[in-house]
Amino acid sequence: MIRSLYTAATGMIAQQTQIDTTSNNIANVNTIGYKKQRAEFADLMYQTMEYAGTSTSGTSVSPTGIEVGLGVRPTAIAKMFTQGNFKETGNPLDMAITGNGFFQIQLPDGTTAYTRNGSFKLDNGGNVVNSDGYKLLPEIVIPEDATQISIGVDGIVSVLQAGATAMTQVGQIELTNFVNPAGLHSLGDNNFINTASSGDPINSTPGLNGLGQTRQQFVEMSNVQLVEEMTDLITGQRAYEANSKAIVTSDEMLQTVNGLKR
To answer: Which is nearest to 191 in space by CA: 33, 58, 15, 21?
Structure first.
């Protein structure tokens, strides 16, 4: 059987992975805190028919050898944690992180998840929660009579209560970073959890120990660049077509061989 049939098939499978990844990026172009993904590939093993350096005569050797590649395979889908654009919302509980770091969210099972989505709200108990009702950690409770909420770049949360003339501190936001953020496991809903690859969470005050600062009344949008994704979509489609053409060509060659004996 012609080797190229299988080689081209691996190329089509790889380009399908590329298209799937690009499509997910495009779908999340307006998702708050979303971080784009990038598909990465590597060539497969080679069938060596002649090693480089093999003697070709008593005084000469083969300078290159003969190695035939067997295709390609996906090796990783990497998360790209570059900064997204900021959007002003006017909501005093919304926050964006300028620089490194993640907000901490408590999931219903008690697990701590991490997110760049800084769109927060209040529940019926005055707790600061995300859109799914999961509490921000450390927990921050806003008093019922608060008339103004202020969040500093250092994460200090203060409120002005009815009848008061001075702000009262009610909490301190902490950010978390990881040695290898790309190793975080995606849960969906813009949430991640740490893995052995990401390393243990490193908690600190915003602006310290390499962490970014918090900016009130802003959210960080997706870091997806639509022009880049559309370009990747086109190149992935053309590469898929080229691999399918290689299969068609190989099939025609086999047809020619089968037609030698009538």
So the answer is: 33
Q: Which two tokens stand for residue 172?
A: 């301190």
* Residue type, position 211, single letter: L
Nearest in space to 18 (alpha carbons), one of 258, 182, 234, 196: 234
pTM: 0.87
Residue 65: which pLDDT band, with cuts at 50, 70 and 90? confident
pLDDT value of residue 262: 65
Q: How many whole angstroms separate alpha carbon 141 and alpha carbon 259?
A: 80
